[in-house]
# Entry
Amino acid sequence: MAKNEILSELKKAEESAKSMVDDAIDSKNKRISDARAEAREILRQADINAHKAAQDSFKVGEEKILEERDKIVNDGEKNALAMSQKAQANIDKSVKYLVQEFERAVLNE
# Structure
């Protein structure tokens, strides 16, 4: 082989090697870019999921609070009704007692 042919073959081999290296670098950069885009999407989706979970948790807590409030109000109403009925019964007893005492005082005079 002539010197020019050898140099030409070496030049072709260098160009081929450079092209392969450039393709590998381009491929590496594309994979890195795709991985970063995927990571951003994963983070975005995780943020959405975390926000939804927080809203769901808040809703459950709010429902429990409302249920507890209703229970407290119902218990308070029952207690108030029971105290009112007891007070009414005591008023009737008190009036009867006062009338008896008044009659006794008037009859003893």
Remarks:
- Residues 3-107 form the longest helix (105 residues).
